[in-house]
From TrEMBL:
The active site is at 2 (schiff-base intermediate with dna), 3 (proton donor), 58 (proton donor), 263 (proton donor). Monomer. Its EC number is 3.2.2.23, 4.2.99.18. Pfam families: Fapy_DNA_glyco, H2TH, zf-FPG_IleRS. The keyword DNA-binding applies. This is Formamidopyrimidine-DNA glycosylase. One of its GO terms (biological process) is base-excision repair. Binds 1 zinc ion per subunit. It comes from Lactiplantibacillus garii. Transmembrane segments: none annotated. Keywords: DNA damage, DNA repair, DNA-binding, Glycosidase, Hydrolase, Lyase, Metal-binding, Multifunctional enzyme, Zinc, Zinc-finger. Its cofactor is Zn(2+).
Length: 274
């Protein structure tokens, strides 16, 4: 499942590669990926130019001329690829955007869970999870006042609250564990038990961690056809995620893995106490 930094890396790669490109025609091999009527989807995008690609949470927003936005969610395995025309299609290629400059924008998806929805620009907030999406994890949007209010009102455990996209956009399992460890907060603490100092620290760690993760993934964007951040350098910087049984970098206590709200959760039992 791509998390926000991966999707942001894809967005940057796409902007670099296909911003300004015009769609000559579209082939859809797996119609379920398109939430619209497929014929109308193809007809409305034909001849339109990609002005830019935006992002909201884990959703990519392709801004086309003619006031159209294609909302694309990669879900588990969706990937974009830009290739010379006719090359590199596989059995997992489900949508092909033929561009007028003799390239193809391929959408590959081994699980076929990804979805594309074409809407008038400005109506993207009517699509799927965008209807109710919390603020982006950046300083000017994820304010301390907002978090104090949101956490203060909730008896829910803090980890599932961090994963709730309607509260904060784009935090997944890895970054929830990492930022809670950095903030020395047990993942099962009730949100409304967090002190002002803890909320402030957690907020800053979320903002810094997401920015650093985006930077880390950006460094892997190097070539034409592998532009979309497969490996990423960021796994080298993880402190707790996937490190159960290894000593905590701060105190040496062995990192434990437990289940919290069905999700594998890593924490330092010495510094993150209930
Ligand atoms: Zn520790």
């Amino acid at each position: 499942m791509p998390e926000l930094p991966e999707v942001e890396t894809v967005r940057r790669g796409l902007n670099r590669l296909v911003k300004g490109a015009t769609v000559a025609s579209i082939e859809v091999f797996w119609p379920k990926i398109i939430n619209n009527d497929v014929e109308s989807f193809e007809a409305r995008l034909k001849g339109q130019t990609i002005e830019k690609i935006d992002r909201r949470g884990k959703y990519l927003l392709f801004r086309f001329t003619n006031g159209l936005t294609m909302v694309s969610h990669l879900r588990m395995e969706g990937k974009y690829n830009v290739v010379p025309r006719g090359e590199d299609q596989t059995k997992h290629t489900h949508v092909v955007f033929h561009l007028t400059d003799d390239r193809d924008l391929l959408y590959n998806d081994t699980r076929k869970f990804g979805r594309m929805t074409l809407v008038p620009t400005g109506e993207e907030n009517t699509v799927g999870g965008l209807k109710k999406m919390g603020p982006e994890p950046v300083a000017d949007q994820l304010t301390l006042a907002y978090l104090e209010d949101t956490f203060g009102k909730s008896k829910k455990m803090i980890k599932p609250l961090l994963l709730d996209q309607s509260k904060i956009a784009g935090i997944g399992n890895i970054y929830a564990d990492e930022t809670l460890w950095m903030s020395k907060i047990h993942p099962m603490r009730p949100a409304n038990s967090l002190t002002e100092n803890e909320i402030s620290a957690l907020r800053q760690n979320i903002i810094d961690e997401m920015a650093m993760a985006i930077k880390g993934h950006g460094t892997t964007v190097h070539s034409f056809s592998t532009a979309f951040g497969e490996a990423g350098q960021f796994q080298n910087h993880l402190h707790v995620y996937g490190r159960e049984g290894e000593p905590c970098e701060r105190c040496g206590t062995l990192i434990e893995k437990i289940k919290v709200a069905q999700r594998g959760t890593h924490f330092c039992p010495h510094e993150q106490q209930l």
